[in-house]
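Hi, here's the filled form for the chain we discussed.

Project: internal
Contact: R.S.
Residues: 495
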Amino acid sequence: MGSNIPRVVSLLPSATDIIAVAGAVDLLVGRSHECNWPSGVERLPILTGAVNQFVNSKQMDDVVNASLERGEGLYFLEQELLRELKPDVIVTQDLCNVCSVDLQLVQKTVDQLSIKPRIVTLNPQKLSDVLEDIIKVGKAIGCQQQSEKTVAALKQRVHKAQEVAKGASNDCKPITVAFVEWLDPLFVGGHWTPEMIQMAGATHPLNKPIGNGGAGPSIRIPNEALVEADCDWIIVCPCGFTIEDTKKEEDLLSTKSWWQNLRAVKEGRVAIVDGNQMFARPGPRLVDALEFLVGLLHNRPDLIPADFPWTWWHTQKSAASAESKPQSLSPDTNGKASSKAAKDSSQLPNGNSCDSTDVSNQVPNGSSSGADVASNGNASNSLALPAGSHSQDHADTLDASSKNPAGAEQAGTASKGSGSEAGQQTAKQSQSALQTGVQGGSKAGEQTAEQCEKGSGGAEGRAGQGPGERKWGAAPFLGAEIEEAHAAAIHAGDH
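And the returned structure, exactly as it came back:
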């Protein structure tokens, strides 16, 4: 590195999430077209883009398979912009060529630079790998101490969630979950997701964890496999899709008689989760996702992070919802878990196999509209910029609602996992980022190694700060010291 203050480029949304919880957003000088959290990173220059434009799930699956058969890449990388940004560290992945820019393209591009940055590659298979990656990235960018504190706090939350799941699962038939990661054709989740379902006290029979680790790639399944499994719960979380995106394609399943006859559908146990922000990104917010699973499956709404983006499948607004049943777990109009019954979870109908109470009455009024749900994670995550405050000259870099070819798997191999939203970023948008974003994204020089490790300023009077009070609304609450470091890093990058 040319100095003690590294210039960092993230070519992976989960890597940007990791850098954020290390309190080092200020070190970023460039990002991928998919990176859209925490709020404010959209202003950074965009270095990547998707070759193919998304129309719908089936079209993207066909296009991706055809591109792979021809040996063509799915993404491009702006070499000249990378040269101008002069990064010391590039964080990328080697898990899935469908999900994000592949390592080979990154290495080929870096080989052509006169000054070659260090490439940090992430390839997690399970949740513990993700936590190790947080420390790995922290070491690479000079924020090891902060990263270790973050991981320690996340591990405590994982332990707590598992303990709740164990207590709720005693003497009960195991809960079965089908985690749907793509709608047309059907894919079910892999890698860390089945493991997390198991950690939450349930099983994922359609793609089981291998030993005590991940499950391997997500896999394509025929409709008949979902029918035969007939799981207690179905979680619909298409990779790269916001909740609004998923709602646009609900009819792919809702109109099918085989879907309507599934037990989870009839009993109102189908949840939609924002697949752009959650589960598909192997970063710190997987812990939020684990807490969501435990809260959902065991009727503990108090465990679900208040801003976790989820809602019910719209068919749960059925005739059964008119029946008088106890108040239970539900997302509010902002896609957040309702806390109305959180104080007394004994009032909630059980969501496990010990009690198959119908929860179709839990759909809040109007929740079937995608506009009523916090579907992209940015609206409520006002860490750096309030929603809608991005200046007009950067508007062309803010295509954060584009779709993901990540869920459209390689035929036969079904390799997927690390990707988040593979957007419709065009070459024109990337060029615009070159013209307008470089100066706005090159704040790394203002961040010192000491600030990265300890945080700076603003700590007075906030030692008792709680999750509801902090600026960083969407991040896991990691304790006052770490929260202050995060806020300080973002504050430094805004000036």
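Let me know if anything looks off before we file it.
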